[in-house]
Design brief:
Elements lengths: L6 H7 L7 H11 L1 H16 L13 H15 L1 H4 L3 H5 L2 H13 L13 H17 L8 E2 L3 H10 L17 E10 L2 E9 L5 E8 L11 E4 L2 E8 L2 E8 L2 E7 L3 H11 L11
Antiparallel strand pairs: 1-2, 2-3, 3-4, 4-8, 5-6, 6-7, 7-8
């Protein structure tokens, strides 16, 4: 069985490998398609994510938390593993690196002194989708379709228990590309993507939860009785809002006001089915 590198690829990218290990890993990458693809994804994430926002630092235990979450998902969700074409096309290390990079550029503080990684993880998912899309293969979506009903039916067949409300945003010049069953912070997520003007990506996720889990942001909007929480990571904008017991978030590198207006168009007022603590 061919050996593949993991941590060493990140170390190689960051210039932390000494000889002769550096030459050994470099030579392996030149002949191994899998490791070369993983290194390319890590390189894209590192160059594509902003490097600083003031002096903000990610929480010191975030790396272990992200890895633990991914390990738990691998161990306990074997039934879903066969559906994870997106995860198989974007290497697991790329998800970890993207999460850490996104966390480093978001000032994210939850209630009390426990940092919240949700915006960082959503930004990481967007970076991973963009990386996969850049490499071809439809961005790793389980279903590629411009039919909202077909994408909703795919989610319902594959374990998403809540209504997903996949809308046609053609009037806003964003064409539905498809979707996949995802996992966000240990909970099921319906992830679906659109392509807009100049092939700009727009990714929506819907997951069980509450916007009260989000860190504070100084950009909060109100529209049609719905509250929208706006975050930015470099040139990427994230807009969260509540629909019943589900949180929705739109993420894109389009101009912030464009993403906010798209959220206004997509958002639906839905009453919560259960009280939140």
């Amino acid at each position: 069985m061919t050996a593949h590198y993991g941590e060493e690829l990140q170390d190689l990218l960051d210039g932390r490998l000494a000889e002769p290990r550096r030459s050994e890993v470099t030579a392996h990458v030149e002949t191994c398609v899998r490791c070369r693809r993983e290194l390319d994804a890590l390189r894209w994430i590192k160059s594509g994510m902003p490097k600083q926002v003031g002096e903000a630092e990610p929480p010191p235990d975030l790396a272990s938390r992200v890895r633990a979450s991914l390990d738990a998902a691998d161990a306990t969700d074997a039934a879903a593993a066969s559906r994870r074409s997106f995860a198989s096309r974007v290497p697991r290390r790329a998800w970890i690196a993207a999460g850490l990079a996104a966390a480093a550029v978001l000032v994210v503080f939850a209630r009390g002194d426990r940092p919240s990684a949700l915006p960082a993880l959503v930004a990481a998912d967007f970076a991973a989708y963009e990386s996969a899309a850049a490499q071809g293969g439809g961005g790793g979506l389980d279903i590629q379709s411009s039919d909202p009903k077909a994408v909703e039916a795919h989610f319902a067949r594959n374990g998403i228990a809540f209504p997903t409300r996949v809308f046609d945003l053609g009037m806003m010049q964003y064409r539905l590309a498809g979707g996949r069953v995802h996992e966000l912070d240990g909970r099921p997520s319906a992830l679906f993507a659109y392509r807009g003007p100049e092939d700009t990506a727009l990714v929506c996720q819907m997951y069980p939860g509450s916007v009260s889990e989000l860190p504070a942001t100084d950009d909060v909007r109100e529209n049609n009785g719905i509250t929208f929480h706006v975050f930015r990571s470099g040139n990427v904008t994230l807009v969260f809002w509540q629909e019943g017991d589900v949180v929705c978030v739109l993420t894109s590198s389009a101009p912030t006001e464009t993403v906010v207006q798209l959220a206004f168009v997509k958002a639906v007022r839905v009453e919560s089915l259960a009280p939140r603590g």
